[in-house]
Design brief:
The protein is built from 1 helix and 8 strands, in the order E-H-E-E-E-E-E-E-E. The chain is mainly beta. The strands form 2 sheets. Strands 1-4-5-6-7 form a 5-stranded antiparallel β-sheet, covered by helices on one side. It has a 3-stranded antiparallel β-sheet with strand order 3-2-8, with no helix packed on it. A hairpin with a 5-residue loop joins strand 4 and strand 5. The chain is globular.
């Protein structure tokens, strides 16, 4: 499966947070790397999207679409 960058989940991020998020910085809970959300690595073909840190490959976000709304688990990615 070919990954894409964080811009692929821009719409889901906007739906969840209510603002444009791809330029926002966040820190990976696994390795501490800080990067814009647009630089995350997205695997969109899983049941939802699995989003990984570009530095350590740890899972930092999971994006699901449920009943026409986005549900995002971002417990491993802290906005800075």
């Amino acid at each position: 499966m070919e990954p894409v960058d964080g811009n692929a989940i821009a719409g889901a991020l906007f739906d969840h947070f209510g603002v444009e998020m791809t330029a926002r910085l966040g820190a990976c809970a696994h390795c501490g790397a800080v990067a814009p959300m647009a630089e995350l690595v997205v695997y969109p073909r899983a049941p939802g999207a699995v989003v990984r840190c570009r530095s350590c490959n740890g899972v930092v976000l999971v994006v699901l679409s449920l009943r026409e709304r986005s549900v995002i688990d971002h417990s491993c990615f802290e906005l800075v």
